[in-house]
């Protein structure tokens, strides 16, 4: 709001709304962290004591460690492929005018709007037909589909800030296309590529529906949580949650710091100019 | 591509042209190729499967409308369709209203630097352990859980809040709030400040500025936020199961049940396609409305 | 032109049904300073981009020192460009920017540095060599852009509105430097601009383009004093136009029959009796008086407005038939002219100062669209 103007409702109202939303977003996370250190089996406000026994239990659980290894493998490979594909598509959209460009863009933005249950179902049917259902490769193939649009969006946003004439200017000075790309476009886009890698890693690491449908016996961490959720109250979920929160929150916050710092100029132009 | 009146060129030009095409294809093709193979083909297969049949618990290629006839004739399908649709729409509206003051605060009260940090903190949970957060809500809402303990401490009855619409709504909000906050905040932050000042200069009071300048200008972003809240809530099935406790039989639950219990692939495919159709129609109408121009 | 160095022959470029350049031919001599100007969308930038290989021409040929270059990809053309946005590489230092083209040509490190430093010194930006280009002033950035292209020792330098990012004061200063540099180096400059003052003060020859076609090519004086078409006359400005028909003659002089009466012509360029023609008279050649009978050609007018332009004043006049004329007077002449707005005055000029435009055909500015 321009400084000389008043808000329609007092500032306190809007700030209270902000506080409420952040409470809703972070209360479940904080409570999971809190109860992961509780000595009690049943989480309640009257905690009898502090304990790390649930951590010990999770970290010695072979099934859980295997799930962790599966999750890291899937997320790592997914992030590599999704980032590469996402960058390529973002660069293509930035650099070239080609037939069907809008169609490609629409196709790339479609996967996040299709319910994961339906994607999981369709992919399970497809992977069974081609005989890779129940493998981690199937999970990766599917995760790339849902993660690549995020990578593309992050890279495309960054490329939008690159003066389009720079690459042609480099060619005009004698640079071949690949060398103009490597010397002009890549250095500029590198932070976004890193952010895309972290975000796609987090998307894959946290995805449970498709992994559950197509992963078969190869459980990932979220699938393990889902299975536990269907059973009895289990305090180890809080431990797994705390560990996953620390991993994904760190990744995502680093990624966001990178992305937001670049686009900071664009977002706040009207006030800082 | 650029011209049909291309006169004959030397081989140098021809090579250059092919090189350009190959270089371009290297960047254009990979993502669409991957999406065609692992997204479009599976969805196409799902359409095909809806016309297949199940013989002796085995899925068999066929060309029958029996799954369609069966599913469309189910009363409880339509009941759960409208329940799913209505509950998700209600959640979407409620989430948008809940998010608006916060988005307004980020866009207009916070300084630009603070806004970026707040936005980062708002979107981060979207990528973090949704399941564990739902489990946390269960702990909050259950009988003898955090909320009921607090209510009891104040002399209330402290019953379980699970299996209520409030619980389901919390689940939907947990999922969709980050996305709605981002879309609303960006829409509001991009409202032209000069326009706001101009309105004030012409005598608009703060209330009029909010309702006649800011909201109309931010309408596309606000509407897209609503749409995404709907899409996410509609597709969500964990909170319907674990917070709603099966009180709310929604379409995604129906889909998983059809496959897991009884290998009813064709029927599950039909329900899925109905869901996609209703999503597309809703998205189409909403986007049209969001970008509708006056006059 | 005998020593043609850079030859553009019949270049054409369309985008779908939009014709950006309909036909562009130009022979440029070694060391010539060519300015291409015209309204936006006239095809001047597209022509330059075809020269640099940034656009593929639909038709036509480009030869540089006798070699066809239109088939070469951008990176082999040896026609470096100074961009409107400057297009400096933001994550490189000044020196790295200048070295870039040499690096692409495989010039070894020490040699590259020596040559880059030479040019940094030549353009007076040695002090900023290790600075990020983002932290330079407009004029300094301009010099980096020039150094980055000139270090390649090109035969031709392309400039696309290079001064448009500078403030007016700096732009005038850079104009002088550009001209000096071009003379010293003897490099051919092809300079696209929409600024009259840049084109007329810098170029050896000016190309005026309109709607994808070349309207006139000539020295600045040529174009200023003798615009060939109505479009060029209007584009250059300060010229009054009278429509009429050629009719009758008296000795060597002929007459043009306008709606405001007959006027004499001394150059009739062989037009037939009865042909439609436009007469052009420069504003500084028109005299204005309150009494009639002062000049050879005289038209009664109403004084519509006065436009103060420093040492001179432009008087806008309307004839009875609705022609509008512009007369440029010195300030002191105006003081002697006892006429207020709305007064009846007489505009007159010498027959030698009026000239007929080549064709009366319509050449309206604006993009042309080919019938699909």
Please give the structural blueprint.
The complex is a heterotrimer of chains A (273), B (295) and C (372).
Chain A: H1 11-36, H2 53-59, H3 62-95, H4 101-109, H5 116-130, H6 136-159, H7 165-172, H8 177-206, H9 209-214, H10 221-230, H11 236-267, H12 269-272
Helix pairs in contact in A: 1-11, 3-6, 3-8, 3-10, 6-8, 7-8, 8-11
Chain B: H1 11-28, H2 30-49, E1 53-55, E2 58-60, H3 66-72, H4 75-109, H5 112-123, H6 130-141, H7 146-153, H8 165-189, H9 193-201, H10 206-235, H11 238-242, H12 251-260, H13 265-290
Antiparallel strand pairs in B: 1-2
Helix pairs in contact in B: 3-13, 4-8, 4-10, 6-8, 8-10, 9-10, 10-13, 12-13
Chain C: E1 4-15, E2 18-29, E3 33-37, H1 44-52, E4 59-64, E5 67-68, E6 81-82, H2 94-104, H3 109-122, H4 138-150, E7 156-160, H5 168-185, E8 188-193, H6 196-202, E9 205-210, E10 213-218, H7 220-225, H8 230-236, E11 239-250, E12 253-258, E13 261-265, E14 276-282, E15 287-289, E16 297-309, E17 312-319, E18 324-330, H9 331-336, E19 344-349, E20 354-356
Parallel strand pairs in C: 3-8, 3-9, 6-7, 7-8
Antiparallel strand pairs in C: 1-2, 1-4, 4-5, 9-10, 11-12, 11-14, 12-13, 14-20, 15-19, 16-17, 16-19, 17-18
Helix pairs in contact in C: 2-3, 2-4
Structural features, described:
The complex is a heterotrimer of chains A (273), B (295) and C (372). Chain A is an all-alpha fold and 273 residues long. Helix content of chain A is 75%, strand content 0%. Chain A has one domain: MetI-like fold. Chain A has twelve helices and no strands. The relative contact order of chain A is 0.14. Chain B has helices at residues 11-28, 30-49, 66-72, 75-109, 112-123, 130-141, 146-153, 165-189, 193-201, 206-235, 238-242, 251-260, 265-290; strands at residues 53-55, 58-60. Chain C has 372 residues and is of the alpha+beta class. Chain C folds into two domains: 4-225, 3-Layer(aba) Sandwich (Rossmann fold), CATH 3.40.50; 238-284 and 295-356, Beta Barrel (OB fold (Dihydrolipoamide Acetyltransferase, E2P)), CATH 2.40.50. Helix content of chain C is 24%, strand content 35%. Chain C has helices at residues 44-52, 94-104, 109-122, 138-150, 168-185, 196-202, 220-225, 230-236, 331-336, and strands at residues 4-15, 18-29, 33-37, 59-64, 67-68, 81-82, 156-160, 188-193, 205-210, 213-218, 239-250, 253-258, 261-265, 276-282, 287-289, 297-309, 312-319, 324-330, 344-349, 354-356. Chain C has a six-stranded mixed beta sheet with strand order 6-7-8-3-9-10, with helices on both faces. In chain C, strands 13-12-11-14-20 form a five-stranded antiparallel beta sheet. In chain C, helix 2 (94-104) packs across helix 3 (109-122). The chains are: A mainly alpha (273), B mainly alpha (295), C alpha+beta (372). The interface between A and C is medium-sized, with 19 and 25 residues.
């Amino acid at each position: 709001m321009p400084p000389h103007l008043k808000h329609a409702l007092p500032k306190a109202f809007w700030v209270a709304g902000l506080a409420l939303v952040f409470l809703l977003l972070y209360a479940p996370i904080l409570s999971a962290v809190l109860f992961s250190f509780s000595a009690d089996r049943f989480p309640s406000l009257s905690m009898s004591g502090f304990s790390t026994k649930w951590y010990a239990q999770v970290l010695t659980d072979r099934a859980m460690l295997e799930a962790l290894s599966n999750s890291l493998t899937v997320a790592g490979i997914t992030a590599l492929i999704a980032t590469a594909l996402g960058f390529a598509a973002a660069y293509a959209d930035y650099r070239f005018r080609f037939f069907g460009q809008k169609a490609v863009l629409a196709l790339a933005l479609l996967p996040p709007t299709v319910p994961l249950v339906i994607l999981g179902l369709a992919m399970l049917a497809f992977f069974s037909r081609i005989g890779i259902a129940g493998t981690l490769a199937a999970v990766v193939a599917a995760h790339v589909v849902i993660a690549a649009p995020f990578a593309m969006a992050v890279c495309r946003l960054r490329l939008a800030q690159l003066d389009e004439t720079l690459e042609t200017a480099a060619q005009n000075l004698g640079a071949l296309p690949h060398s103009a790309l490597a010397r002009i476009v890549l250095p500029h886009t590198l932070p976004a590529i890193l952010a895309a890698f972290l975000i796609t890693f987090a998307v894959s690491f946290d995805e449970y529906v498709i992994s559950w449908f197509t992963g078969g016996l190869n459980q990932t961490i979220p699938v393990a949580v889902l299975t536990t959720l269907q059973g009895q109250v289990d305090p180890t979920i809080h431990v797994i949650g705390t560990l996953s929160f620390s991993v994904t929150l760190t990744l995502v916050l680093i990624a966001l710091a990178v992305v937001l710092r670049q686009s900071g100029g664009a977002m706040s132009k009207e006030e800082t100019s | 591509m650029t011209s049909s009146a291309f006169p004959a060129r030397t081989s140098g030009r021809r090579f250059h042209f092919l090189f350009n095409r190959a270089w371009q294809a290297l960047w254009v093709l990979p993502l669409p190729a991957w999406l065609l193979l692992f997204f479009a083909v599976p969805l196409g297969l799902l359409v095909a499967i809806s016309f297949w049949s199940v013989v002796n618990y085995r899925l068999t290629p066929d060309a029958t409308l029996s799954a369609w006839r069966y599913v469309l004739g189910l009363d409880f399908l339509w009941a759960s369709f409208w329940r799913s649709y209505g509950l998700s729409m209600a959640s979407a509206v409620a989430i948008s209203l809940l998010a608006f003051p916060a988005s307004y605060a980020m866009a207009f009260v916070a300084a630009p630097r603070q806004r970026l940090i707040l936005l980062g903190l708002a979107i981060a949970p979207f990528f973090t352990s949704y399941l564990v957060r739902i489990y946390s809500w269960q702990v909050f809402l259950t009988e003898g859980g955090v909320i009921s303990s607090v209510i009891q401490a104040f002399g209330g009855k402290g019953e379980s809040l699970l299996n209520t619409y409030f619980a389901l709504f919390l689940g939907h909000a947990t999922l969709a709030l980050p996305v709605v906050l981002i879309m609303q905040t960006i829409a509001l932050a991009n409202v032209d400040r000069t326009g706001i000042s101009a309105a004030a200069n012409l005598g608009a009071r703060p209330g009029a500025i909010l309702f006649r300048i800011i909201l109309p200008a931010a309408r596309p972003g606000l509407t897209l936020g609503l749409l995404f809240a709907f899409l996410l809530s509609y597709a969500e099935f964990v909170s319907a199961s674990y917070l709603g406790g099966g009180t709310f039989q929604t379409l995604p639950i129906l889909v998983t049940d059809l496959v897991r219990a009884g290998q009813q692939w064709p029927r599950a495919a039909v329900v899925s396609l109905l869901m996609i159709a209703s999503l597309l129609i809703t998205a189409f109408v909403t986007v049209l409305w969001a970008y509708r121009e006056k006059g | 032109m005998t020593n043609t160095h850079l030859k553009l022959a019949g270049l054409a470029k369309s985008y779908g049904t939009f014709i950006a350049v309909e036909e562009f031919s130009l022979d440029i001599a070694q060391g010539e300073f060519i300015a291409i100007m015209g309204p936006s969308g006239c095809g001047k930038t597209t022509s330059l981009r075809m020269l640099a290989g940034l656009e593929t021409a639909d038709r036509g040929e480009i030869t540089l020192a006798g070699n066809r270059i239109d088939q070469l990809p951008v990176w082999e053309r040896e026609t470096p460009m100074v961009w409107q946005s400057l297009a400096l590489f933001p994550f490189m230092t000044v020196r790295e920017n200048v070295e870039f083209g040499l690096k692409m040509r495989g010039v070894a490190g020490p040699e590259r540095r020596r040559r880059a430093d030479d040019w940094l010194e030549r353009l007076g930006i040695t002090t900023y060599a290790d600075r990020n280009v983002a932290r330079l002033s407009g004029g300094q950035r301009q010099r980096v852009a020039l150094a980055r292209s000139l270090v390649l020792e090109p035969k031709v330098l392309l400039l696309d509105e290079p001064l448009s990012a500078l403030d007016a004061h700096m732009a005038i200063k850079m104009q002088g430097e550009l001209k000096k540099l071009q003379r010293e180096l003897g490099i051919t400059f092809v300079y696209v601009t929409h600024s009259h003052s840049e084109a007329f003060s810098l170029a050896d020859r000016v190309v005026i383009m309109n709607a994808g076609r070349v309207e006139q090519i000539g020295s600045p004086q040529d174009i200023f004093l003798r615009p060939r078409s109505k479009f060029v006359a209007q584009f250059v400005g300060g010229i009054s136009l009278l429509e009429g028909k050629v009719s009758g003659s008296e000795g060597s002089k002929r007459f043009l029959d306008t709606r405001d009466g007959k006027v004499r012509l001394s150059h009739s360029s062989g037009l037939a009796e009865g042909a439609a023609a436009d007469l052009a008279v420069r504003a500084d050649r028109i005299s204005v008086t309150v009494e009639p009978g002062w000049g050879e050609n005289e038209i009664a007018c109403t004084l519509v407005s006065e436009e103060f332009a420093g040492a001179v004043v432009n008087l806008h006049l309307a004839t009875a038939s609705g022609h509008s004329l512009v007369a440029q007077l010195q300030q002191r002449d105006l003081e002697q002219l006892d006429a207020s707005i709305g007064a009846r005055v007489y505009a007159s000029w010498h027959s030698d100062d009026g000239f007929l435009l080549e064709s009366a055909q319509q050449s309206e500015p604006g993009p042309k669209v080919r019938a699909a």
